[in-house]
Amino acid sequence: MSKAVLLTILVAGLIVFSTTGNAFAAQLDARLNPTAETAHIKYNYQKTVFIEYPQGGALFDELQGKEWSIIGSADATDVGVQTLMMKLNEKLKNDGSSAQVSDLTVDYDIHLKARNINTSIDYRVIIEGTLDNYIITKDSQKILIDLGWRGMSADGEIVIDGHEINYPINALRDQEPIAYGFMVGTEAEDILTQPLLNADFIGQQPLTNWHFLFDPTGINVDAGTFGLSDEIAGFVVSSWTMGESSLREGRQVERVFEAEIMADKPYIVRSVQSSDQGTLKIIGFGALDTFDGVEIAGVTPRAPEGYATTSTGEFPVMIVYGMAGLAAVAGIGFFIFSNRQLKKETEGQTGIDPSRLVGYQTSSSSGGYQTNRGEAQLRDDDSGYQQHTSVYTETPQTAPPPQTTYQAPPPTSDAQEASCGCAASSEMGSECDCEMQGSCLCDALCGCNAQVCRDHVSSMS
User: Fold this and answer.
1) Among the residues of 264-384, which ranges form H helices?
2) Do the Cβ atoms of 38 and 269 come closer than 8 Å?
3) Mean pLDDT of 322-350
4) 279: number of CA atoms within 13 Å, CB side?
5) Long-range CB contact pairs, 90-95, < 8 A, 24+
6) CA end-to-end span of the chain
7) Residue pLDDT, tens place only, 267-306
């Protein structure tokens, strides 16, 4: 019992610990070819801010009915994009990575929409570019790839076409100065000054916690996604993904920050960020390692002999097959056992033999009406009454004394038949008519068995 409690506490602590950390939201998508000098990478940063005014107020009056968007795109010739590349490369260098970003393009979309109960502001920035210098060493046996560049982040203002895209509060400052004034000097300002271009959590999550799979059958269909021809068919593709809820990563949920503003009316500012996600694919079989504190992957064209993997990591394939075989044997054994038990129950069935039952009619006619009611009773035979007595009876059973019933004498003449209507009815099976009518149709000479007639005879005698 103590071991179970300890294991529960350990697992719960692992989940809580693995879900703590800096709250940044970003999505990574990268595909690397170790034989090439460059690779294409893509990051998607997004966040939504809600300004709520449950009691109305001046902020509601200022924002109601408004809706606007800031949409733009720029390439490496833009000064703002060049500033962004410089900040990203500086961050990669500080993280110990030798990789660099070049040929960057930026797409941004900021959309504000006011409603009766709140105003939402959606922020989205997508950067795509070329990753250089990610190959550390290369020989005929293995290629070492730098993977320490995953946490691409940028601090400071990034202004593209006159629009600042890194700090959410600056969109309010430039487009809605009155609403911006409500935020200044409050906790809401701290929330809205967290940089949007931040993928630190993707870099901080060890690749050993990521979900790893590889395709050993070739990538004919996926060749186009790498920008390669069908000549790479038959190569292994290693894949690492993160963002799922698991014991490795912990429970992944949206990150919510909330602050209350006390002005003419109470207002609530809420920042919502989706969970971080990442997909990293490399042509070849990648084995993870570290070099000078930076995560790397040793890539070979083929997987090691006899290697197999599932979602749980390096799991021997023979064990998987063995477990499947045991499950099949267990299923067969279950069906054999069930069949034997069914036969035992059929052969050992107990109870009354249906051939010993006989039906008796229990209803009689009333005038022209008769029901088909009956019951089943044991047939009298030589097996004896004691065979069917209750096992809980402590005293031996004796046959009940015979009961004397009054039998109507056969009619002797037409006159007697006329004076004994109930007896005549008895021959037709309807002598109960006298009892149902409450009167007797007979005289004192009639020997009718009906109770009303016997009482009538007694009163006349």
Assistant:
1) 317-347
2) no
3) 75
4) 8
5) 91/151, 91/152, 91/153, 91/154, 91/155, 92/148, 92/149, 92/152, 95/148, 95/149, 95/151, 95/203, 95/294
6) 91
7) 999 998 877 888 999 988 888 999 888 999 999 887 776 6
> Both tokens of residue 343?
């036969």
337-349 residue pLDDT tens = 787 777 766 555 5
Secondary structure (DSSP) of 67-106: EEEEEEEE-TTSHHHHHHHHHHHHHHHHTT---EEEEEEE
Distance separating alpha carbons of residues 114 and 136, to the nearest angstrom: 51
DSSP track, 146-182: E-TT------S--EETTEE-S-HHHHHHHH-HHHHHH
Predicted pLDDT at 19: 36
For 67, the token pair is 């809706």
Neighbours of 158 (CB within 10 A): 23
Give the residue extent of every domain in the chain: 20-28+36-207+248-275, 407-461
How far apart are alpha carbons 192 and 182 in whole angstroms?
Answer: 12
Mean pLDDT of 236-247: 76
Q: How many CA atoms lie within 13 A of 246 on its CB side?
A: 14
Who's near 270: CB < 8 A, 6+ residues apart? 49, 50, 52, 256, 257, 258
Phi, psi of 23 (to 5 degrees): -100, 90
Q: Which of 158, 133, 130 is nearest to 146 (CA)?
A: 133
pTM above 0.90, yes or no: no
Rg (CA), the chain: 46
| Distances from the Cα of 311 to the Cα of 297, 315, 348, 442, angstroms | 19, 9, 50, 98
Q: How many CB atoms lie within 10 A of CB 49?
A: 23
Q: Which residue has the tokens 């993160």?
A: 242
Has residue 67 got a pLDDT over 60?
A: yes
Instruction: Provide the residue type at 284 as one letter.
Output: G
DSSP state of 250: B
Which pair of structure tokens corresponds to residue 344?
A: 């035992």
188-213 exposure pattern, b = at least 16 Cβ within 10 A, e = fewer = bbebbebbbbbbbbbbebebeebbbe
> 84: which 2 tokens?
């962004």
| Mean predicted confidence (pLDDT) in 141-153 | 91
Which segment of 191-195, 322-326, 443-447 scores lowest on mean pLDDT?
Answer: 443-447
| Cβ atoms of residues 28 and 278 within 8 Å | yes
Half-sphere exposure of 217 (CA within 13 A, CB side): 4
